[in-house]
Amino acid sequence: MGKVIVVTSGKGGVGKTTSTAALGAALAQNGDKVVVVDFDVGLRNLDLVMGAERRVVYDLINVIQGEAKLAQALIRDKRLQSLYLLPASQTRDKDKLTAEGVEKVITALKSAFDWVICDSPAGIERGATLAMRHADAAIVVTNPEVSSVRDSDRIIGLLDSKTVKAEAGERVEKHLLLNRYDPNRAASGDMLNVDDVLEILSIPLLGIIPESPNILRASNIGSPVTLCDASSTTAQAYFNAARRLAGEAVPVTVPGERRSFFEKIFGRKAA
Amino acid sequence: MKILGFFRKRASASAARERLQILLAHERASVSGFDLVAVLREEILAVIAKHVQVDSRHVRVKMERGMPVSTLEVDVEIPFDARARAA
After folding, report:
1. B72 pLDDT higher than 90
2. What is the C-alpha to C-alpha distance for residues A189 and B17, in angstroms, rounded to an integer?
């Protein structure tokens, strides 16, 4: 039985989709069977970030409506044999995403894959609550910025109340993925640092992804950063996060934080 | 100058942290369905309305959610009717 993960945040634009793609590809590179599922009906983008936008025939809504078999809608990644994508519908009505339909699809995916990674839409409406509904674990993607942290706090509240696990009196495992982190700005005091965010949200840290141009480059060419630029610090941060997700104890380091003795004493660069 | 700049820079992240801590403490309390300050506001206004006809345009409610205390300021203009006589 596979593990169902929701990648969520509340706020839009914090990096849910890129993180879903990067983590999915990282896990699949271990040989695990992974499916990434786009829940953003009407505004799908996971297909684009994965570079599969021209191969979408059927989508999640088609499967829920019984117009296509699950196997027909799944798109196998061209680079990684064990990575699959289930796209969202771009044109159909969001209301077609039903609780029963989602449950059926997730149950089927769980029995066929090691990891079912659900890319949640932004917001706290139906799409977002259905994406988290059946999760065993959640990755809360947060930027070190006040509105993102506030929305993450709200999402954590929903994970603790509106999921199947929560309703059964169990807990959804929650992990913080701190994205777009700039260690230099955090060190100079102009950006919330790792400890600030951890103290406020008080959920365990899955990883810190540094702000980096690699991400834009990866989405430009339609390839998860862990595939197209595997040696970059960004990809390494995602690989480590994937290992922690799989239960390995990998110590968390702040990427890019290599300051000289002088800088450590006198703060940032003398500029 | 440099030292001043250094302290000013430090202030923005710590300001963010403090603002978030206060805000989220209140939001967590109110999402669970009970917002004491809001309840008090409603009940105080209801009590006043029981005794005097209050024009809602002349009621000012100010709230300051803080840590460790919040303040609620209710400013009601109670009309004085000079024609009324004691019975």
Report:
1. no
2. 11
B6, B9, B21 member nearest A200 (Cβ): B21
- Tokens 């003795």 sit at which residue? A261
Q: Which of the residues B20, B21, B22 would you substitute to probe the A interface, choosing the one with the greatest number of A C-beta atoms within 10 Å?
A: B20
Give the Å distances, CA to CA, from A197 to A8, A148, A267: 16, 10, 21
Residue A139: phi and psi, rounded to 5, are -110, 115
Q: How many CB pairs under 8 A join A and B?
A: 42
Contact indicator for A234, A187 with CB cutoff of 8 Å: no
Tell me the per-residue pLDDT of A221-263, one tens digit each, with 9 for 90 and over.
999 999 999 999 999 999 999 999 999 999 998 866 655 555 5
Mean pLDDT of A105-122: 98
A181, A210 contact by CB (below 8 A) = yes
| Tokens found for residue B51 | 């005794």
Q: Would the pLDDT of A175 be above 80?
A: yes
Report the candidate in A10, A47, A249 with the shortest Cα–Cα distance to residue A152: A10
Q: Residue A146: which of B6, B14, B20 has the nearest Cβ? A: B20
Interatomic CA distance for residues A116 and A34, integer angstroms: 6
Dihedral angle at the C-alpha atoms of A20, A21, A23, A25, nearest 10 degrees? 150
Which structure tokens are listed for B67?
């840590």
pLDDT on residue A167: 96
